[in-house]
Amino acid sequence: MRFxxxxxxxxxxxxxxxxxxxxxxxxxxxxIAAVIAVVSIGNGAKTQVEASIASLGQNIISVFPGNxxxxxxxxxxxxxxxxxxxDALAVSREVAGIVAVSPEMNDRSQILANGLNWNSxxxxxxxxxxxxxxxxxxxxxxxxxxxVRNSTKVCVIGNTVATQLFQDGDPxxxxxxxxxxxFKILGVLTAKGFNYFGQDQDDLVLIPYTSHLKxxxxxxxxxxxxxxxxxxxxxxxxxxxxxxxxxxxxxxREPDFTVxxxxxxxxxxxxTTKTMTFLLTVIAIISLIVxxxxxxxxxxxxxxERTREIGIRLAVGAHGRDVLTQxxxxxxxxxxxxxxxGIVLGIVSSHLVNKFVGWPVQISTLAIGGAVxxxxxxxxxxxxxxxxxxxxxxxxxxxxxx
Amino acid sequence: MSAVVQLQEIHxxxxxxxxxxxxxxxxxLDIAGGEFVAVMGASGSGKSTxxxxxxxxxxxxxxxxxxxxxxxxxxxxxxxxxxxxxxxxFVFQGFNLLARTTARExxxxxxLYGRRRFSSKEVRDHALRSLDIVGLSNRADHFPSQLSxxxxxxxxxxxxxxxxxxxxxADEPTGNLDSKTAVxxxxxxxxxxxxxxxxxxxxxxxxxxxxxxxxxxxxDGRLVSDTAVAGRLVATAxxxxxxxxxxxxxxxx
Lengths: 402, 253
Ligand SMILES: Nc1ncnc2c1ncn2[C@@H]1O[C@H](COP(=O)(O)OP(=O)(O)OP(=O)(O)O)[C@@H](O)[C@H]1O
Ligand SMILES: [Mg+2]
Prior knowledge:
By secondary structure, chain A is α+β, with helices and mostly antiparallel strands. Chain A has 14 helices and 10 strands. Chain A has helices at residues 3-16, 18-56, 85-94, 129-132, 145-150, 159-165, 209-217, 235-249, 262-269, 271-305, 307-315, 320-356, 365-391, 395-400, and strands spanning 60-65, 98-113, 116-125, 137-140, 154-157, 175-178, 181-189, 204-208, 224-229, 257-261. The longest helix of chain A is centred in the N-terminal third of the chain and has 39 residues, at 18-56. By secondary structure, chain B is an alpha/beta fold. In chain B, 37% of the residues lie in helices and 26% in strands. Chains A and B meet through helix 1, helix 11, helix 12 and helix 14 of A and helix 2 and helix 3 of B.
């Protein structure tokens, strides 16, 4: 039988029980939709993470207080913070292959200027911070090493702070008050936009870390230490050296710090998307299997219902192979149609996720091609048994079937 | 003429029920090319069973069946299918048309499963020609459910004819028809027979059997009578008589 005729017969049979066909394809529809959504969300996350890794700066290693690698209770960032400025200086002095080290302080606080107030992030950093983060000054200038040495009350503000507090007029040269302490504004940073977590990176006030320690936080310990390595291939070695050095400085006490590289930070950042992707994958696999079994079931029903038809076809000269192809094609069409509906549904739901959950999504043509392939394979795999059953019918017995 | 069909001590036993049914019990029969045979007999005497064996739809439990000289018991499933497709035309007792499929498409079916590939147009033309032979070309696009019993029967005949078979096997082709339509069908058969097709048909009606050339009678799975028909009826002539009678009835009414 010519292939076009086989398709025609298959479509007619499926149309005859349209509702049943759609319900049968539901498993495939959901499965494929989940596959498309998984890949879109995963891809979107990957692109974003890559972008945000790049925006962190190049070859970045961070040291946080608290130990996340040892077993037992997790301390969490900042709990029992014992990173000190001396630690940072020691790293800078003793570990080879380092471009820059910046001791970091981080607090939120209300700031006042111009009779307006705004809640913002107050970051204490060293002078080289902007170089590490590949960040530029839009207006004015960065504070100097002398400012760091003397804990001067100076700051550089992010674009958001500038627009919030100084709607008209140039902020450079003016001052703002943090916890009632006046800081002189030296410059305004270029706008960087939102990061992967949805945080506004421009909503910050940058001050020397020494000023932060002494005047804002009024505590001896750092929030973190930012380290930049010379090249990517030195990262692992430097990570190890920093760990060894800090451990040595702790004289055998339990490690109370964690050293992470950029890649690890990014991976931690995508943990939620990963969980979601995993769940969706599980849903996809389960519904594809269930969908396949549904197709097998309905094809078996169809073979039984159409026993006489099969008998007639065999009686007038159809080979078993013709009947097999007929039912196989029907199963494949059923699952491919499910696949196509699933693809559309997957694309639509990816966009909805993007719109309402805010996750970045990226539809991949590869995933669409893959989805079509998967549904074909399901059609063949689960359609084969019913089709073979039909092909093996005895013509005269099939004709007698009531 | 040489025998196209040779049955030698053919037996068929059905084992499906509780007790085995010995439906055909040793039939030996030669049918030559160009013959027109009627098989008669009581209900349950094994006529349909014999027809299914002749039509290569079923295999005998015992005995030899030579079709055109070849032993069909040597053939596999697919070879039998090709035989049914190319050499044999079968008209079933209960039509066996595909529902929700037009008359034309029903007729096309054997051609679609043939060894040779035809274009859609060739297939359609053949089907329409076949429907024309049975006088149904004006109903080509009707579904079986929209056709009368007689018309469905004729679609089934057209389907049996589409691949130009050597042998036409018909199981009660006139069983569901009024006598006028039955004579019409016999007219078709006689015409086909004149063109050289060998015909074997089952019938209950003695007068229908008189359109054939040879009558067989079965009883309890055996052939009990085999006679040449004397005073054979000619369908065209009988049709004239029926039409004349009809007009007369109308005039007097
Ligand atoms: N599939 C079957 N399984 C078991 N027994 C069968 C089967 N088909 C037919 N028979 C039996 O075989 C015998 C012959 O049946 P067959 O159909 O050949 O009769 P028939 O002469 O065609 O009768 P009718 O004139 O009623 O069509 C009957 O006794 C019937 O019950
Ligand atoms: Mg019968």
